[in-house]
Amino acid sequence: MVASFTDNFGHPRGFLGRLMLVAMERERLPMAKWAFSLFDVPQEGQIADIGCGGGYNIKRLLQKSAAAKVWGLDISEESVRSTRPRL
Length: 87
Prior knowledge:
Layout: H1 7-10, H2 14-36, E1 46-50, H3 56-64, E2 69-73, H4 77-83
Parallel strand pairs: 1-2
């Protein structure tokens, strides 16, 4: 089944879903930078990114703390698949 454009906002799939993930990251980058300025990332321990999208925030978390274990969860298989190469 081919997902429509609007379906990809909530559940990215296929080529269009991958494009949507990149676009959403670009749109959310200023907010992510602001949010990361408000808290310290623990040097050890475990962190969960629920609704991880394309995994850009997981990468940011790992850059701040390579020793931490970071878990990313998302409803979209495309999101999880596109996260793996970034790590």
